Amino acid sequence: MISKNLSQIKSTISKCENEYQRTLGCVQLLAVSKRKPIELILEAVAAGHTNFGENYADEGAQKIQALKDHNLIWHYIGHIQSNKTRLISNHYDWVQSVDRTKIAERLSLHRPAELGPINICLQVNSDAEQSKSGCSPEELPELAAFVAKQDNLRLRGLMAIPAPTTDPEEQRAAFHKLATLYKTMQHQYSDVDTLSMGMSGDMQAAIAEGATMVRIGTAIFGSRD
User: Fold this and answer.
1) Exposure check for the chain: N or C terminus, fewer CB within 10 A?
2) Cα(61)–Cα(88) distance, rounded to whole angstroms?
3) pLDDT of residue 133
4) Better-scored residue on pLDDT, 134 or 47
5) Helix (H) / strand (E) containing 9
6) Between the CA of residue 74 and those of 8, 32, 158, what are the distances in Å?
7) DSSP 3-state assignment of 180?
8) Is the CB of residue 14 less than 8 Å from the CB of residue 6?
9) Tell me, what's the pLDDT at 188?
10) Cβ count within 10 A of residue 56
C-alpha cells in the first residue's frame, strides 16, 4: 500500500506541474513519517523514496540511527526547543522550522564540522496565527541575514503552514504571499532554492503558486494513532 500511495501522489504532483506550467520534476515530495514505525518507512524506501520528515526530535533521531545504512535524507519540520538543538544538529540533514536567531545560532554552534553545513528553511507565519510557530514577514529579512552568516548553516529557503481553508482561491492567495517572499530571498541569496509549502489538502494550490517541496504524511502512511 505504501508503494501504491507514493505512486499516486507523485502522479498527482506531475499532473499539477503540467497543469500550471511548472517544469516536470521540479516539485519534491517529502514523506512525513512522524509517529510511524520503521517498518512502514522501510516500505517507502523499498519503493525508492529517500526524503523523510519528522516533527519530534527524539523520535526522528532514533529512526535516523536505526536506518543509517540506507542513505536517506532527513528533514526536521517540527517546533524547535532550545534544549533539542544539539540533537537536531547532530542527526538531521535539513531543518525547515527555524524561526528565530537564538535557534539558528545554537544549531550552527552544535553542528559537527564533519557533517558539513545543515540546510535551513525559515518558517514564516504569514497569517499571524497565535497557535503556530514562525517569524513574521517583517522579521524575515533580519533572520535570513543572520542565518546566511552562520558558518555551519546553509540558507535554502522558506517553509510555511498557512491558515487552513478548503477554498482554493484563499489557499492560492496565502501561498502567493509566501512565493513573493521567496522570490525576494532568491535575489539576495544564491543558495535559496526551496519553497516548502503544501500538504494533502492544499497541495495543488501550493504547486500552482510555486512550491518546490510538498509535505505529505497521512496520504502515504495512513492515519496516525
Assistant:
1) C
2) 8
3) 81
4) 47
5) helix 2-19
6) 22, 10, 17
7) helix
8) no
9) 97
10) 14
**DSSP H helices in 92-167:** 101-110, 140-148
Q: What is the mean pLDDT of the chain?
A: 95
pTM: 0.96
Q: Give the whole-angstrom CA distance, residue 146 versus residue 119.
A: 14
Q: Which three cell numbers stand for residue 57?
A: 526530535
Domains of the chain, residue spans:
2-221
Q: Cβ distance 61 to 32 under 8 Å?
A: no
What would the pLDDT profile of 83-98 be if each residue is shown by its tens digit?
999 999 999 999 999 9
Cell 503556530 maps to which residue?
132
Residue with cell 526551496: 194
Q: Which class is domain 2-221? A: alpha beta
Instruction: Write out the H or E segment, with its range, that includes residue 205.
Output: helix 203-208
Set of cell numbers at residue 182: 521567496
CA 10 to CA 6: how far, in whole Å?
6
Nearest to 117 by CA among 125, 126, 107: 107
- What grid cell was written down for 62? 532514533
pLDDT at residue 225 tops 90: no
∠ Cα 155 159 164 (to 5°): 170
Strand runs (DSSP E) across the chain, as ranges? 28-32, 51-54, 73-76, 94-98, 118-124, 153-160, 194-196, 213-216
Q: 136-150 burial string, b = 16+ CB within 10 Å, else e?
A: ebebbeebbebbbeb
